[in-house]
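discrete fold record:
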Amino acid sequence: MKEFELKYGCNPNQKPSKIYMEDGNELPIEILNGRPGYINFLDAFNSWQLVRDLKEALGLPCATSFKHVSPTSAALGLPMSDKLKKACFVDDIEGLDESPLALAYARARGTDRMSSFGDWIALSDKCDVTTAKIIAREVSDGVIAPDFDDEALEILKGKKKGAYNVIKIDPDFVPAPIEKKQVFGITFEQGRNNFEINKELLSEIVTENKNLPESAVRDLIISLITLKYTQSNSVCFAVGGQAIGVGAGQQSRIHCTRLAGQKADNWHLRQSDKVLNLPFRDDLKRADRDNCIDLYISDTDSEDVLAEGKWQYYFTEKPAEFTKEEKRAYLDSISGVSVGSDAFFPFGDNVERAAKSGVTYIAQPGGSIRDDNVIETCNNHGMVMAFTKMRLFHH
């Protein structure tokens, strides 16, 4: 297939629309099911690059959940605790522990479930039945992977009344070193961002604390590779082999950090006993549970699910309030979180906000005229910070 005609572009009025290879070669994909659209393909090709890079860097099966050309999370196929399985709504999936790829997607989808509603999925490895079963019961637009088991493909074809988008990509495809795009009829050309992110990038530690364990190296690599394919400005929190909070597309660095930190906090709070033991009604839909949990752990919106006449919609009995003080105490017990930034932190306020979400390790390019202030702020919190000297803007 040398070109594929799309229903329309970013919006229904943008016609005609298609994808094709400028050099006239075959497209490096097979559309196994559905009819992906313009934004679907943007998500598919960006998300595939992320999991490809992550697999090459860390050698484990991985997955990502994408929405509007930015990841909500990316994760490695590592074992999950019972609490994490329950928080990710996968504690009932048979064979989960035997499928690293399914573990990876369960983590990625479960990180920021509200943002992942209607996501695009990328898998680093051949999609197996267990992974397909998780995908089958979540609301998503499509999936890209290097291959699919026959049974897994049949499961996926059953989604959306047979219209679910399934793309198989050639894992050996290497794009041209020069890339182009047009804006307002003007062509932009640049070298492709083939920069390799690995542990050597973290060798310049500028803080007094220089203890960077292998687990933190892994998480910082996950954070930085995630940022490489996130709309800038962006900041990413990671821990335990997965991204847990992505702040994307903000004009201010501190707003990126606050957004990512809030999402990371929500991920932690979802695993608290108070949330895991909420008495949900059996007939409550999964998306409603997600919305309810998000409101319940909010400092400002919890009354929207706890007020008389409202809690009955979600619960079999009224749960106790999750107080601001209880949540702060829970979050204060967390440490060992990693954070990456796609450009330098211009002020120490980013470090102060990161500290409230249990951050111990930071990787950022450095190069600000206030680097001394940022380093001092890290030292005041006993953090480890590495200067990567590499900006990772993505637009």
Notes: The longest strand covers residues 70-76. The chain has three domains: 7-174, 196-269+331-387, 279-321. The chain is about 35% helix and 20% strand. The chain has a mean pLDDT of 96.
